[in-house]
Predict the structure.
Amino acid sequence: MNIEILLIRHGETEFNRAGKIQGSMDSPLTDRGRMESELLGRSLDQWLESPQVWMVSPQGRARESSRLVRAGLIRTPGLPVEEIVESVHEIRCGEYEGRVIAELDSVTLQRLRTDPAFPYPGGESIVDVMQRGKALMERILEKAGSGVDGNGTFRAVVVSHGNFIRAFAALASGLGPNFAMRSFLSNTGLSRLLSANGGESFKILTWNDISHAHGLEAQFTNLGTG
């Protein structure tokens, strides 16, 4: 059995544009964020085979992005209902939530960007988020046992956040936490993981595909948390 997992980061938010840390906080999608999500939906509609499950973070920016992406899937038949999954929420940034990244202590910030076991003050580390990723993997594998499409593939869509997606991909691929620390994910970046052995191991098919947004002006580069 093949298992394909499509990972989608939410669209740009007001906090992203302002360079602020979100974590468990939320802020609205910008006009660009809404357009990115709509464009991704139209792009997926050209090739996406019907997924068996569609999982979404409980946070507002992910749910709004998911709604806009799904609105573009006109051709895709039998789209499953959204399933809100608590474990795919963004990394908790504790005392740093709502603060401008450029104003943070540079030593602490550098360690957060290089040491996967170092947690945000009062929050989580990337290693902590990878632990949460295990719950998502277990859920996907459990659901994969209930049925596949006509080509023997179980397909899951997960709409989440930058840090969670990078951590989950690091876990699923076996590349480890350094992958999560060194990879970058744009707003509405699409990444695809594939297992050809029923979920025993996964390979990264594509990473951070933003071809759907190439018609937009240059994207705001957000290296913070999303």
